[in-house]
Design brief:
The complex is a heterodimer of chains A (463) and B (448). By secondary structure, chain A is an alpha+beta fold. Chain A contains ten helices and 22 strands. Chain A has two domains: 220 residues, 2-Layer Sandwich (PmbA/TldD fold), CATH 3.30.2290.10; 230 residues, no CATH class. Helix content of chain A is 21%, strand content 41%. Chain B is an alpha+beta fold and 448 residues long. Chain B is built from ten helices and 21 strands. The longest helix of chain B is centred in the N-terminal third of the chain and has 18 residues. The chains are: A alpha+beta (463), B alpha+beta (448). β3 of chain A pairs parallel with β2 of chain B, so a sheet runs across the interface.
Chain lengths: 463, 448
């Protein structure tokens, strides 16, 4: 396949492209779905194809196919080249890429237990055991769902700088969802594990510390209260902090959004954008869910310091944004599959820890809200307004956690919120393996944070 | 665009293999699609994209256990491997006590107008002209924006066969355009978006999208925070689709009948005042969500879902209908060749009322006009806490300044119960959906 991709890079250059990139993508997945003690569905899938990206006359053209014949690739190359030519008369954004030193490498992420070496029967047994523990937690458990999934992703990237990279990445997951019920009151609890890893992380699951936790949360939420409404000091746990750094700031630091005028920090490099307590890093080299060695443009990944002690240091870059904004490409461009061009994505993004204990973070808060467990978030980068939804919360009264709250959501203005970070804990964790959506592409990421305090955040309550 | 890929032969080959494997029931679907798109970022057009996709998916049931497999290759060897994987998995899966089987064949008159030859022959050069015209229309309102957005158009064809005798092919086209301009005046930002989608090229007004996107963006300058309170909100036709979709999702398929949504116990109950009604109609000629058959081969039919505020039916596929002990309503949704078959609405038509958006605003002493919000509730509990992404303060019957940093909270069923008025005018989308403005009294808002 590598030879075929390299031959089409040459063919692209011979057809008038000044830059040509060919990328093979294959993803093999297996999954098991258990519902209320029944392993009712087993599934598998293979996604496989090639994406071709060219610059012709300063314009980008991209095409993809999963017809992996020479005829299929000829059509894709012709589509990419023809596409870039078709927009040359219409102005807009010129295409540019940084010229990087080419690398040839093959990376295979080792795992302790290859999921393909574990029989489906053993996997079913383990998933049923996880499910059973949740169900047994209480007679108020209405439904339990446990899903197992393993994914093996192979990416081969060749480009006209001479890069030739192959990376094989296994990922393994288990998700547990529990619905509790008391009369008409229904609540839901989650737990999940997932990483660049093999079956060993599933083997290591102890139901008491996993599905039982989800069940316990679902049951306790039955008696939790709706949050109050208004503007409060908030304290967030590591998962909500991770969601906050990803949504509120991470997207704003993506170079493509910066050069496209979609970021509120596009003109703020070197300026203070957060309190002195805030340091933000995106690090694809860390062994978390967003880990990779080469991005999908063939660039070696390095840690990215985005904000240091409250000052904006740099953006995340692709070959294009580095060329246009003057930064260094350090491996931030990835694509969901062969059907999408690489765009700038976060990897493992986090707030660096401070030196406070959890009690110190809470200290001095007369009335506030503590948020724990992330559900989802989104941001309007151009306006700098973000929303984050937590699984549960607690009222903070005089520095103590008091009333249990459910379905707590917050809204804030990015720059205002980051300047209002007034306490940063030392209890850092990166444990939010998730998928990030951007421009219709979904990508593996992780987020982390210590406990931290932010003043003046809108809490969207129901009382 | 090309469409020579043969879908029928690989599906028949898979069916032939499956029929020798001692299964309860099975189905096979294959799809081919081709689409083109133009991407917009920053100063204007940035890139083009062309996509060719095909795949085959197999669902096999053995002793009521389900095995699923799909592949993005129609080569005979890959088709056979996909079949064998699905069957092996079906034999390992445990019996689903709720599974009652797959439906048999039905005949229905073909829904016309789902295919547009103009889109089939549309190339990127012509598409770029439309996109440029859309950008020019936006700049005609005000220059100096940075943009994001684009347009895409495509052709899609599928073939489905089941062991119960269902066999049919479908082909359709689609087109969509989206433009989001962002203007800056110092630290003040004016940003919004506009979009449209349809089956046919002629249904998309690129100039209107460009012009309206810029007008809406400019209207967002000067946004301000407002105090928390309990106020009426008027959900504009641009946003009421999200409000109604939440209810329809909560009464669709397996989750609804297994008691896992906030509306699971609402069948036959009054959930809103009589002014509120929803018809789901997957038979509208040329409409975006129309089709002759649903994802299992059941003929589409118009369905009165909410009548005078009362929920008349859930939206079923054969699985959820089997649990409820009723006939399927023809709302099975098949997500391509991936093997998953769910249930959900088609073209959503909210019944027009007798008010108007202008009257609603004029009659409001103090409230919020919600132009853009995703009403994303907790689907299990129905609890809602969402940001008003775009909205305006209404004071003394007049639309005032745009708001920011404001959230709406409550319970979905309370929102429907508190509907006070529905407008007679609204927004048509994709020639199928119709969403009017909806006024809701006494909503909890969280702000400064």
């Amino acid at each position: 396949m590598r030879d075929l991709l390299e031959s089409y890079v040459k063919k692209g250059l011979g057809s008038g492209a000044s830059f040509c990139e060919t990328r093979f993508f294959e993803e093999r997945s297996n999954n098991i779905s258990v519902e209320n003690g029944v392993a009712k569905t087993l599934g598998s899938g293979i996604v496989r194809g090639v994406g071709v990206r060219v610059i012709v006359g300063d314009r980008w053209g991209f095409a993809s196919t999963n017809v992996l014949t020479r005829k299929g690739l000829d059509v894709a190359l012709a589509d990419a080249i023809g596409g870039s030519r078709s927009i040359r008369e219409y102005g807009g954004e010129e295409a540019k890429v940084s010229d990087v030193k080419p690398v040839t490498d093959t990376v295979i992420h080792d795992v302790k237990v290859n999921p393909e070496d574990v029989s489906p029967d053993l996997k079913i047994k383990k998933v049923l055991e996880i499910d059973k523990a949740a169900k047994a937690y209480s007679d108020r458990i209405k439904d339990t769902f446990v899903t197992y999934r393993d994914v093996l992703t192979k990416v081969i990237v060749c480009n006209s700088f001479g890069a030739s990279i192959e990376e094989l990445t296994p990922r393994t997951y288990t998700y547990c969802t529990v619905i509790s019920r008391e009369g008409d009151n229904k609540q839901v609890g989650f737990e999940f594990v997932g990483n660049v890893a093999g079956y060993e992380i599933i083997d290591a699951i102890e139901p008491d510390k996993f599905s039982v936790k989800a069940a316990e949360r679902a049951v306790k939420l039955l008696s939790a209260k709706p949050p109050p409404r208004g503007t409060y000091p908030i304290v967030v746990d590591q998962r909500v902090g991770g969601l906050f750094v990803h949504e509120a700031f991470g997207h704003n630091s993506e170079g493509d959004l910066v050069l496209g005028g979609q970021s509120i920090i596009s003109d703020k490099v070197g300026e203070k954008v957060a309190s002195d307590l805030v340091t933000i890093i995106d690090d694809p080299t860390q062994p978390n869910h967003g880990h990779f060695v080469y991005d999908h443009e063939g660039t070696r990944a390095r840690p990215h310091l985005i904000v240091k002690d409250g000052t904006l240091v740099a953006f995340l870059h692709s070959l294009e944004s580095a060329a246009k904004l003057g930064g260094q490409p350090e491996g931030s461009a990835r694509a969901q599959s062969h059907h999408s061009p690489p765009i700038i994505r976060m990897s493992n993004t986090y707030f660096a820890p401070g030196n406070m204990s959890f009690e110190e973070v809470l200290e001095g808060i007369e009335l506030g809200v503590y948020l724990a467990g992330s559900q989802y978030g989104y941001v309007e980068t151009q306006k700098g307004q973000f929303t984050a939804k937590a699984e549960e919360g607690w009222l903070i009264e005089k520095g103590e956690l008091t009333e249990h709250l459910r379905d707590v959501a917050i809204n804030g203005l990015t720059l205002e919120a980051l300047k209002n970070v007034t306490a940063m804990g030392k209890d850092f964790k990166m444990e939010f393996p998730g998928m990030c959506g951007k421009l219709s592409q979904s990508m593996y990421v992780d987020n982390g944070s210590p406990h931290m305090r932010i003043e003046g955040i809108v809490v969207g309550g129901r009382r | 665009m090309e469409s020579e890929v043969d879908l029928v032969t690989p599906v028949e080959r898979a069916i032939s293999l499956l029929s020798k494997m001692d299964l309860d029931v099975f189905d096979v679907t294959a799809t081919y699609s081709r689409s083109i798109s133009i991407g917009i970022l920053g100063k204007g057009i940035k890139e083009t994209s062309s996509l060719d996709d095909l795949g085959i998916g197999v669902r096999a049931y053995k002793n009521r256990g389900k095995g699923i497999a799909f592949s993005q290759s129609l080569d005979p060897a890959d088709v056979e491997a996909t079949v064998r994987k699905a069957v092996a998995f079906a034999k390992m899966a445990q019996p689903d006590p709720y599974f009652k089987g797959m439906p048999g064949p039905s005949k229905a008159p073909e829904i016309m107008g789902l295919f547009d030859g103009e889109i089939r022959s549309l190339d990127l050069e012509m598409a770029a002209k439309f996109v440029k015209a859309m950008l020019n229309a936006s700049e005609g309102v005000r220059v100096g924006a940075k943009f994001s957005g684009g347009m895409s158009a495509g052709y899609w064809r599928s073939h489905l066969m089941t062991s119960t005798g269902v066999s049919f092919s479908e082909e359709r086209t689609h087109i969509g355009a989206f433009l989001s301009p962002t203007y800056r005046e110092g630290d003040d930002v004016g940003s919004s978006f506009e979009y449209d989608y349809a089956i046919s090229l002629g249904e998309i007004d690129f100039l209107k999208i460009g012009k309206r996107s810029a007008e809406k963006a400019v209207g967002q300058f000067g946004s301000r925070k407002v105090e928390s309170g309990v106020l009426p909100i008027i959900v504009s036709p641009d946003s009421s689709g999200s409000l109604c979709s939440g209810l329809l999702e909560a009464i669709s398929g397996e989750s609804a009948v297994k008691g896992r949504t906030f509306a699971s116990n609402c069948l036959g109950k009054q959930v809103a005042p009589e002014v509120f009604g929803i018809v789901d109609d997957g038979t509208i000629r040329g409409a975006i969500e129309s089709s002759t058959y649903d994802g299992e081969g059941i003929p589409r039919r118009p369905t009165e879902v909410v009548s005078e505020g009362k929920i008349m039916t859930f939206l079923h596929n054969s699985y959820s209908a089997g649990i409820a002990g009723v006939e399927t309503t023809g709302h099975a949704q098949r997500g391509g060749y991936g093997g998953y078959v769910g249930a959900g609405p088609t073209n959503i038509r909210v019944r027009a009322g007798d008010s108007s958006l202008d009257e609603m605003v004029a009659e409001t002493k103090r409230g919020i006009l919600v132009e853009q919000t995703g009403f994303f509730p907790n689907m299990v509990s129905g609890e809602l806490s969402s940001t008003i992404d775009e909205g305006f303060l209404i004071e003394d019957g007049e639309r005032g300044h745009p708001v920011r940093n404001l959230m709406v909270g409550g319970y979905m069923l309370d929102l429907y119960r508190n509907i006070e008025a529905v407008s007679k005018e609204g927004r048509e989308l994709g020639k199928g959906h119709f969403f009017p403005a909806i006024k809701i009294g006494r909503v909890k808002l969280a702000g400064k």
